[in-house]
Amino acid sequence: MQLLPTLKQLEYLIALDDTRHFGRAAARCYITPSTLSAGIQDLERTLGVAVAERTKRRVIMTPIGQEIATRGRALLRDARDIMDLASTRRHPLGGDLRLGAIPTISPFLLPGVLPGLRQRYPELRLFLAEDKTDALLGQLREGRIDLALIALPYDIGDLEQRTLFADPFHFACSIHHPLASRSTVDPKTLTEQPLLLLGEGHCLRGHALDACQLGSRRVREQYEASSLHTLVQMAATGIGVTLLPRLAIEAGITSGTDLAIVPLKQAVQRQIVLVWRPTSLRKPDFVEFGDALQELSMQG
């Protein structure tokens, strides 16, 4: 019988490929550097090739080592899917579920629905990872998370999706701003306003520019922030104006601020969706999870 690499050895190799450092790779795997080194050496003996070049200061992956690490990620992902599938057959929506969510959704939606999820699915252990959309989709494809909670429009490739609800944008400015007393605001007029936006990499930035029909054009006196909470505080002090999703407004992000919220003349919205790998064995569970999220969010 042919000797095959173990999943543990592949886990060590992937950690080494990601970190390019024995100490950091060992810490990720919760083992000692010597144990990791021995595991990599055993893997090399099994494969009959070197997967890494070792120097005193750094680790250089060999081309074959990088390719094996890439294929190893797929194998580990499939192995986790098999374990998850077995778990769900014992307890529907039970066991571990690794959910990724973007920071313009996570703090405004999840706190209100988690108690209901816990009551419905007491066997479910939910692990949350918060990051920008592009990073989450990468983690999803690599099998590091099971689901991603993101906002469209965004290019998700071949990933499958379950739409939860539409999230309209509203204009936000200081209560002393000339537009604060308007019944509606035309997005086109914002080309002449100092528009506050999230930094590059946040999908909400693109959604806001699209809402103003600005595309990639330069915005007058554009300011950037790292979070919606920062945008709110900056807008409330009159530094500029911004667009906020209804989800954040209803969660109370503007409470206690001198901020006026005005509907947009032309409705502009993002779509809140769950996405997963089309090859996942847990699709029925993901659809049920999406149904529960949608129902609980409407109750809130």
Please state the oligomeric state of the protein chains shown.
single chain
**SSE arrangement, N to C:** HHHEEHEHEHEEEHEHEHEEH
Q: How large is the share of residues in beta strands?
A: 15-25%
- What is the overall number of helices? 10
Main pleated sheet? 7 strands, mixed
Q: Assign a percent range to the helix content.
A: 40-55%
User: Class of the largest domain, according to the CATH hierarchy?
Assistant: Alpha Beta
User: Which architecture of the largest domain per CATH?
Assistant: 3-Layer(aba) Sandwich
- Poorly predicted runs: 216-221
Which radius of gyration do the C-alpha atoms yield?
23 Å
Extended strand count: 11
Query: What value does the average pLDDT take?
Result: 87
CATH homology group of the largest domain = Periplasmic binding protein-like II
Gross morphology: elongated
Explained architecture:
This protein has 300 residues and is an alpha/beta fold. The protein folds into three domains: 7-78, Winged helix-like DNA-binding domain superfamily/Winged helix DNA-binding domain (Arc Repressor Mutant, subunit A, Orthogonal Bundle), CATH 1.10.10.10; 92-164 and 272-299, Periplasmic binding protein-like II (D-Maltodextrin-Binding Protein, domain 2, 3-Layer(aba) Sandwich); 166-270, 3-Layer(aba) Sandwich (D-Maltodextrin-Binding Protein, domain 2). Helix content is 43%, strand content 21%. The protein has helices spanning 7-19, 22-29, 33-47, 63-90, 106-120, 133-142, 203-211, 228-236, 246-250, 283-299; strands spanning 52-54, 59-61, 95-101, 124-130, 147-152, 160-174, 196-198, 223-225, 242-245, 259-263, 269-276. Strands 3, 4, 5, 6, 9, 10 and 11 form a seven-stranded mixed beta sheet that branches. Strands 1-2 form a two-stranded antiparallel sheet. Strands 7-8 form a two-stranded parallel sheet. Helix 1 (7-19) packs across helix 4. The radius of gyration is 23 Å and the shape is elongated. The chain starts with 6 loop residues before the first helix and ends with a helix. 34% of the residues are buried. The model is unreliable at 216-221 (pLDDT under 50).
